[in-house]
């Protein structure tokens, strides 16, 4: 079977016209693809149109790909009609396991052989979703962030019955479609970014539940605090700089004991020599030769640019 | 005693010339204050000068206050000489409890009556730090984020022996000095922002320890994912929008069960009707009449601005 290369995709089927499905449709249109959508709801087409219309000005401002056209969107009369013409399928149905299992089996049955099918699920592993499919080897998770037309991250991971070529193909396709891809080599509940986000969210809920902080204080704590650093440098590099010239190694030596402190309800792992070294080595790999002073300069420039972009510079 | 108003402060004493103390010195200089610094290390003055020199171009670019001058920085020969001339004292010594207790008592003894003394501590409560001071009622925590000259957030909270006027005075002073202030009405280990950050950090360490994710994947997951939303809208408003037109109420109904999922090692609190309502009401208060569509437009504009500012728009 001559399989289409990730760079040869012309038509993407978007199944589901909710916030995520509509966001994907907008993204693929802006990157120059034809999009065929389908949703079982009677107002699905209207909802999808509204979602894409709302996103389009932002996407235009950000820069459309050559040939990108709002009118490359069509709405199919049936699931099978939508996926029959697809070079890639993105499923974004509600988060209900049985629904996903059945829908992915239906998609699989109607999609041309060799075409990769990705699920936007934020909660399920592909292993538990692919059980009813006839050719489960081409089913992968392609988990986006809201809104998919602006947040670059996609986490790609297969299930037990997924073949490696499908994971690789999807990762390469998303990259060509302008996404920032993390390819995971094993299933993990919540994947990576949602585990990080969920830990923060649960701690926030605990604080509100206990009357320790208000919703507004929690949001202010992030938007005016660590949230300003994270678009530029993630949590590991952030702490690499918190260690001063000594970087992550000094940070772990100095603040290691604080992992025993009740600073969150989440218990910390033991800071073994192996974990210590992995954190230090990882930061060195990311720094890729840049000194702490270099990284501080980059961080400062980025924070200033972000503040300015948000209209928050000093008067 | 005629106490100086928060708007009448001219001279700030910065005690400690590490990354945080130096960052505070740079911030106060840029906002037009005179800064008298002190550090017990032989190379303290040189280190402080280097830190301020490195920060100054960024601060100049961001916009200096009227009268701000890099040369308004001096280094005192002793702790008592530094605080004797201060209208406000910011202590940023290493995170060691006994050292902080002793140092705050020494500062308290040498600082003019009625002058507020704030500690940059990220780990201790003022109740445990103020034990040796003679006039502990004017001691508060004023916890900044790195770098203090660019990240606006300061968390202000007193200890058991702190009087309310000192908490209010410090909060107002920081606001006038250009900071975004959260005034807490009770002590909480790690305060608010660090509890959120620490939950995320511990989950990250768990993933690295278990070989589930690399340092680079964790940083990419944040910088290219949720981290792009958080400078504009905190975690609560972010999820308010994840609920579509139904907002936080729909989000909690739809994703509430996921609080039982093993998406992080942190156990979630029970989603009681009270917690449900507090989250929904808090988001409504923050939205302040803005519809979900309004907030989506604001979020999209902000994410685009941030991406552009970081040079990440599509080619």
TrEMBL record, chains A, B:
GO terms for biological process: fatty acid metabolic process. Belongs to the 3-hydroxyacyl-CoA dehydrogenase family. Residues 190-258 form the 3-hydroxyacyl-CoA dehydrogenase C-terminal domain. Pathway: Lipid metabolism; butanoate metabolism. Residues 11-184 form the 3-hydroxyacyl-CoA dehydrogenase NAD binding domain. This is L-carnitine dehydrogenase. SUPFAM superfamilies: 6-phosphogluconate dehydrogenase C-terminal domain-like (SSF48179), NAD(P)-binding Rossmann-fold domains (SSF51735). Keywords: Oxidoreductase.
């Amino acid at each position: 079977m001559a399989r289409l290369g990730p760079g040869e995709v012309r038509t993407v089927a978007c199944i589901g016209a909710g916030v995520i499905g509509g966001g994907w449709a907008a993204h693929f249109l802006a990157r120059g693809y034809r999009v065929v959508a389908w949703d079982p709801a009677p107002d699905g087409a209207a909802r999808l149109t509204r979602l894409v219309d709302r996103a389009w000005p932002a996407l235009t401002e950000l820069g459309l790909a050559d040939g990108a056209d709002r009118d490359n969107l069509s709405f199919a009369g049936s699931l099978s009609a939508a996926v029959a013409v697809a070079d890639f399928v993105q499923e974004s149905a509600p988060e209900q396991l049985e629904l996903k299992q059945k829908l992915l089996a239906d998609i699989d049955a109607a999609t041309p052989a060799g075409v990769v099918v990705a699920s936007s699920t934020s909660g399920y592993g592909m292993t538990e979703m692919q059980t009813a499919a006839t050719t489960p080897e081409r089913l992968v998770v392609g988990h986006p962030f809201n809104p998919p037309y602006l947040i670059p991250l996609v986490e790609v991971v297969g299930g037990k019955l997924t073949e490696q070529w499908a994971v690789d193909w999807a990762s390469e396709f998303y990259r060509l479609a302008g996404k920032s891809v993390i390819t995971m080599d094993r299933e993990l509940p919540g994947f990576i970014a949602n585990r990080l986000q969920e830990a923060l969210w649960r701690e926030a809920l605990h604080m509100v539940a206990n009357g320790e902080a208000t919703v507004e204080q929690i949001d202010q704590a992030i938007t005016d605090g660590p949230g300003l650093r994270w678009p530029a440098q993630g949590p590991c590099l952030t702490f690499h700089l918190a260690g001063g010239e000594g970087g992550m190694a000094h940070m772990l030596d100095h603040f290691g004991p604080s992992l025993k402190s009740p600073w969150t309800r989440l218990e910390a792992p033991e800071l073994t020599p192996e974990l210590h070294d992995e954190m230090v080595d990882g930061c060195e790999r990311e720094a890729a030769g840049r000194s702490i002073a270099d990284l501080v300069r980059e961080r400062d420039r980025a924070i200033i640019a972000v503040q300015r972009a948000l209209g928050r510079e000093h008067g």
